[in-house]
Amino acid sequence: MFRLRTKIQPHITTTLAGDQQLFTSPGGYSLAKESPVNIRQKLRVTQSRSERCGAEEKKVHRCLELNINFPLYTQHTECPWLNLFDSTTKFPESVLMGQSVFLGNFDECIEVEHVDTGVGVFSGQHCLTEFRQKPDSVQALSPQNLPHVESLRIRAPNVRDNDRTVSFDLSDLGLTLSYCIPSTCSAKDFEGIFNSYLQDMNLPLVTSVAEEYCQTNEGKSLATEDWITVGILAAFLLLIVSNTAYDLIGKGQKKELLLAFSVYSNGKKLLSTKSSGDTLQAVHGIRFITICWVIWGHRYTLDMAVPSINLSIAVDFIKDPGRLYITNSTLSVDTFFVLSGLLLGYIFLKQMKHKTSGFNIPMFYVHRYIRLTPAYAIVILISATLYRYVGSGPLLPVIANQMAEGCQSNWWTNILYINNYFDMNRTCVPQSWYLSVDMQLFLLSPIVLYPLWKWPRKWNILLLGTLAIGGVVSPFIISYVEEVSANLFTANLLGGGIQKLYIAAYSRFGPWIIGVIFGYLVYEAKRKELKLSLIQITAGWILSTVAMLASLDGIYSFYQPDADKTILESAFYNGLFRNVWAFGVGMTIFMCVTGYGGAANTLLSWRVITPLSRLTYCVYLTHASYQVVESYSARTPIYIADLTEVRQERNKFHLQAKCKLKMRHKERFKIREAPSESDQSHQLPTFLSDVIISLILAAILSLGFETPAINLEKNLLGRGRKTKQNNTEEASPQKQEGSDKAYTNKLMEESVALEEGIHNITEVVVKDTWEDRMGHPIKE
């Protein structure tokens, strides 16, 4: 999802000899054999060729002269040239361990400014340059010749393994080096010069330099759309300040509409641990634990995407049964689907218990859209504009610009909640695909909810059972027809098959339906005050535990190097494991909320978690943006560890690399690297920082946009309902079970709870009823 398109080319290496940069090609040619005079002569041939480029003649000539005479400047110890040379990539290390991107010294390069050489004035410009073997170079290599071939699959999913021989087009693989060049060179200039030079040297290589991969220290000015965003945020800030001041200073009866943006009032609501007696309190704990799991999984995904010195060890992590909670972390999304379906089914049935007329489907949708979209829209707006100005680094602008371009071109698909069916290469807020799936399921939910309300029990069982079976069959068919492996780490994550299997509503509705089933069961259990025997309680917990462990551990065999799994086996696994997990989660919630949770329910229902749980939706919207900035701001390759990355400079005394030389008909190297116990001590703080900073950002988003939108929706769209409720209470203060007015009174009191529950049934936040959030209990 956050993958930078850089790949491995283990045959190209660079080194340094004196003043010269030397290249060694697969064919064995080396500039080390050339004298400095010959090198300059060959470079001048390139210059002569470039001087015929037309309109760019002067610029190219100046750029070339500065580069050609580079060794002469260093011999005269002119510091700026030494900085350019020093910050350029030298000998690439850890190539066989999977490292393919070498960042040089970014800050040293761009800090070179306004240097006058007599030929021209320039500043340092840091460029990432990708080297590839020419497209006609296709080789077949055995694992003996190419150690850690599995790490290649991570960077190049089209690597094919057949009869222990790995065949691939080397043009698909690349080695990215950093060069610090004068700012007088454009990326196009530098690319043309380098390719001409490689051709003159008869090297079977081509290079590409994109303009977006070249950076100087020049500041960026805000564009028109950026200023518009600043204006919008400033307007919201003014509302927040004025409403908060009115809340704190104003006297007498205050108008609720003018308190919508009050940080003081909204903060009290957010931090409240009160809830009604009928709240499914255990949901709070499951929700918060699940969002932490999502953050953890995304951190590991980023570790696999950013430059690392030991990508190959990630393959060992995948194989390790003790790390299946990472490799199978996509199950966290299915937990949210279960919560979504369960709360929707339970709250709907609870609120419609005494309703004598049908529910308003248009308003059912309107409330949902209004309450979900404002915070989401602000995240989209910032991602499309100001996000690209946050942070710096050799890689970050590329990723930030990609996200900005995706939001600028596809924002409307997000606002309409259909972005999961569009090009994922140009996605906006990448993790938001789940919001779209959940919204689509919500739009279809009346087809399931209405029969639950009106139909006899036997027909409900038939309907829900059929849909549950469909939730298994659909991903099975997609996986089999599209030939999608159960091992996502070797699959093309942006391919059509994986998109159909992973982010489409028609393949992910199974856990949601199972959630609706358990919502129905919870409602019936509470209505009938269900009593379970010790045997039933024990059986329930055994089923829950076995189901979740089987789903989590079932992938283990697919990650083994000797695994020879067929497409049919992968299809069976892909069809079953998410639904089995959903059953385990649903059973856990059922046991907890019906009074048979024991210590598990005590932990999950801990009141301290309640405020954190309320932030889950905004945490989901913001956490990935922070993680991308933190990861792609790196100046050096990371060291992949268990929980999260540990920067190379923090680990240098702990890295252990073992190089063993074995002879089996021919020499070959086999490198192994493993984290020491000291490495593990650095992992937890980084993960915790992800959670803490995400919570801070989520609190800002919630208090500034999400909660005010809920307040406005309640006051504006709910004004007539509230007046009617108050009039009914004055006329009929006591309950009259046989009176329509009494039913209306009760329904009006509870309708806000229904709307709040429906609003928050989203991918990561399934908040409890409105009165739970506001601290006002439902009157029963």
From TrEMBL:
The keyword Iron-sulfur does not apply. GO terms for molecular function: acyltransferase activity, transferring groups other than amino-acyl groups. Keywords: Membrane, Transmembrane, Transmembrane helix. The keyword Zinc does not apply. The chain crosses the membrane at residues 227-249, 331-349, 369-390, 433-453, 460-481, 501-522, 534-559, 579-604. Pfam families: Acyl_transf_3 (PF01757), NRF (PF20146). Residues 725-736 have a biased composition (Polar residues). Residues 721-743 are annotated as: Disordered. This is Nose resistant-to-fluoxetine protein N-terminal domain-containing protein. It comes from Cryptotermes secundus. The lineage of its organism: Eukaryota, Metazoa, Ecdysozoa, Arthropoda, Hexapoda.
